[in-house]
């Protein structure tokens, strides 16, 4: 958890550790607010804070490349797309009373179980392994790329196939409604009214 | 998990050791001086470029432009800034107050942040400030360009949140448009950067400029440069891509409900973004602080001492002039045309180009000589072109037949339902009749003139 040796840093190793814990607490707090707030867009913004907190944690661990990729992908694209979706559905200003579903407790149990599993896996994997921090910084783009494409290439490709499957699934789901609408359209075209009014009628019905 | 992976990669680590040791060794006061210089450079360039824009657009439209404040109207934007700050600061009643006030700040701060990694001069401590030798750059990161991209993507939030928190329709539409715009143009932008990384072996800005010592990347990678230029105009919401603030359609777009200093901050953010993307284009493609070729041929000292500051300023100003030129020349694009350009032209073209560049680099790494590389790449491109031509020919034939048979049945009625409507899918617009030459009109009598006018009206409606 130290900054790379030989490079002048702003903080001493203990300072880095204290900052790491503080940022971690702030991130956890932002994540809690994200799931508990009743205002939709504010929840998305708290999510930005939480993801940004992760980026700061990566920076404190000297993983610059991953930190900025985190900002670029999660803060800059994923949450922006989320906001885009919210705005398309006319996200209301102020509290939405139906923001809470009854499944809150189930979700909490699942979240705690998932967190416990992950922590256990990480602790178990590193139980007898010591990471050597004496060498060059290990968060650089070249080292990350080499590790990713030499040792973890199969999981990486599997993930990209998973994303592709999700993409295709989303298209299939959004296309499912289309034929029904087309048949409605052709039916309504038999009506005397033509053009936009008939189309609007079809959409309403 | 990580240890065995890294220990088996000594060669990779040797490559990864970029020489950025000169950065991060400044005393604290020098860091502050440099940060203030970056801020002041951006601010002054903005103040100048607003006046410059109004002057240039005025000349292009045969007007004079601002000429009241200061010599040659140079203090006009300063006066505008003071005026904006003295205006009433409105907060709309239906707005989400916190986000409404946060939005202009979020838009402005990231715009300045990218300047931290722009190199204004060589990185080998050539200048001295108050007796301390230092590089002409605030700092540099091994992932400098990635940092620029990340910071730019945070800047989107300002626009999006301004649009949403105003609680009004036009700003919301403007915010939606800018979200879609920035996301889709950022992809093309990132891919065009990737080609540069392949040549420079680094993402640090000082390294990228250093590798351009004999050839600028605009010569080596012309396609990447063009893609970047187009997407930088899209990214900064400037004409002809200024759809989020299209005044003809959306009143003022995302900043409709803003006034006083908040509006001034949005204005500032837009112009600082222009300066920033111009500085990035200069750094990545136009040789950064290097003097252009004919000057270096007879003046060896052009790239040393304080001179690089002059060259980078000139290059940034030329790019800003290019922005203004575009605004003075091109009409605003329609939204669907704009999206089509982004997704169907820029992204595929830059993708194919990146594959090409990567192939050439890989062949060079395997020590193939230049002629053979040209042969392979040229052959590959030719084969691809031929294939696409053949596919195009067959696709066209398949489509034309049903179109001809189906055309008469589905006629387009522009006034269906009693008011003008756009064509539905499958319908085509009737051809727009040409206006008659003016010479004919003078020869006919009054009734004929009325008829012509009627016909023209019809043509306009269609």
From TrEMBL, chain A:
Kindly report the protein's main subcellular placement as a broad class.
membrane
What UniProt keywords are attached to this protein's entry? Cell membrane, Membrane, NAD, Quinone, Transmembrane, Transmembrane helix
Q: How does it sit in the membrane?
A: Multi-pass membrane protein
Q: What EC number(s) does this enzyme carry?
A: 7.1.1.-
Q: Which Pfam families match?
A: Oxidored_q3
Q: Which domain of life is it from?
A: Bacteria
| Alphabetized InterPro entries for the sequence | NADH_UbQ/plastoQ_OxRdtase_su6, Nuo/plastoQ_OxRdtase_6_NuoJ
Reactions listed under catalytic activity: a quinone + NADH + 5 H(+)(in) = a quinol + NAD(+) + 4 H(+)(out)
**Known Gene3D superfamilies for this protein?**
NADH-ubiquinone/plastoquinone oxidoreductase chain 6, subunit NuoJ
Q: Where in the cell is it found?
A: Cell membrane
Keyword Calcium in annotation: no
Provide the transmembrane region boundaries.
18-36, 43-61, 67-89, 101-123, 152-173
Similarity-based family = Belongs to the complex I subunit 6 family.
User: What function does the entry list?
Assistant: NDH-1 shuttles electrons from NADH, via FMN and iron-sulfur (Fe-S) centers, to quinones in the respiratory chain. Couples the redox reaction to proton translocation (for every two electrons transferred, four hydrogen ions are translocated across the cytoplasmic membrane), and thus conserves the redox energy in a proton gradient.
Q: What is this protein called?
A: NADH-quinone oxidoreductase subunit J
Biological source species:
Streptantibioticus ferralitis
